[in-house]
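Continuing from the previous page...

OK, I double-checked the sequence for Cytokinin riboside 5'-monophosphate phosphoribohydrolase against my notes and this is the correct one:
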Amino acid sequence: MKSLCVYCGSSAGASPVYADAARMLAKTMVDENISLVYGGGNVGLMGIIADEVLRLGGEATGVIPKALMDKEVGHVGLTHLHIVKDMHERKALMAELSHGFVAMPGGIGTLEELFEVFTWSQLGFHDKPIGLLNVNGFYDGLIGFLEHVIEERFLRREQASLLVHAAEPLDLVELLKTYRPQRYEKTFDRVTASKII
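Thanks. Re-ran it with the corrected sequence; updated structure tokens here:
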């Protein structure tokens, strides 16, 4: 585990616990000699975790589309900053540079990035660990919804287990470090419609 891609909000959120968790995740990563890969912004939780990694002497790599460089206030003090063409290139490069993924609290963009790498894992496109940092119960609703998806037979339990979660950064990083990938073949229910005469 040499690098983690962290998805998180461009806002700091409503509670200071989110910023505290970002700093604690940064410390845990630096202590474990794990470099940060993230969206390259200098605002919200994105800026907080990057600044803390750098302050503690770690490495932080940002990947940001040219169109968002000004909008998200691209972080110019990073170890490496990649300015790319679009969001597709951003997400592909972030995944390529990372040995695992963490979703901290964030908005729609964070969820979209999380579910994309989760889908890629389910389809066998990668075998890197994926974790939710469930700070302050932020992801309780999502975890409950995934249980509902399992019960309704749109997701198998073993596929859901590809996504791990913990409330504390140290616990989550330990889960990611000890994760052992397993292959779960995606199955399809084939329903044949009766011919209408």
